[in-house]
Amino acid sequence: MAIPENVDLVREFYRAGPSDDDASRSRFAVPEVVWHVPGDNPVAGRYVGYDQVFSGIGRRMQRLDEWTIEVREVMGNDDMVCSIVDLVAARGDHRVVCQGSHLFRFTPDARIAEVWGFVADQAGLDELFRS
Questions:
Q1: 85 Cβ contact list (under 8 Å, min separation 6)
Q2: Tell me: the pLDDT tens digits for 48-99?
Q3: From the centroid of its chain, how far is CA 80?
């Protein structure tokens, strides 16, 4: 798959969610997909497979009053695609507004194999997820 197609797939992936249960987005990924959530909080960790990635992460994040991701840029190189996003997360008195990023690795048949998350205010997001 060419870089422009992988970039388009990432844009489509973002348009398909988020939701409490992201199972509908599993079509973009291989069954053994791996997702790395950064930080030192109850959501952080390595998730493997459709259930953990597309349902488990959401279950751990719940009780959020707000979770929005606005895509700013998406760029690719070989089998990797990087997104730059604006993130807003809120729970109770805790609110985080910052930039973040996802680094997607694709398989040769244009499916997501692995994703690494990054956030500019990791300490703030850690505090929010621990609240």
A1: 14, 69, 70, 71, 72, 99, 100, 101, 102
A2: 999 999 889 988 988 899 999 999 999 999 999 999 999 999 999 999 999 9
A3: 15
Q: How is the chain split into domains, by residue range?
A: 3-130
Which tokens go with 19? Answer: 């939701």
Alpha helix segments (H runs only) across the chain? 3-15, 49-51, 57-61, 122-130
Query: Distance (Å, rounded) from C-alpha 33 to C-alpha 80?
Result: 14
The token duo for 101 is 């990023």
Tell me the whole-structure pTM to 2 decimals: 0.93
DSSP state of 54: I
Which residue has tokens 């870089």?
A: 3
CA distance 20 to 106: 24
Kindly indicate whether the domain formed by 3-130 is annotated with CATH number 3.20.20.140: no
* Residue 14 CA, distance from chain mean position: 9
Place of tokens 């606005």: 70
